[in-house]
Amino acid sequence: MEFIKAAGLGGILTGVVSLVIGSQGSRGGQLAIHLMQAGDYEIYWSWPLFLAGTGLAWGLMIMQR
């Protein structure tokens, strides 16, 4: 159950950080931020940042058990 909660938090973290960095015209180096189409919308997204954010949130939730 913690992993599902962590994936949501990782998605929020990724969305906020990618929006701030991507809207400035940067790719974020190793973060590999790119413009992704989701239906009629365009959002900035980074899979490496999503995986790192999810892992961090999951680790924190496991430690709080």
UniProtKB/TrEMBL annotation:
Transmembrane annotation, as ranges: 44-63
Keywords recorded for this protein, A-Z: Membrane, Transmembrane, Transmembrane helix
Protein name: Uncharacterized protein
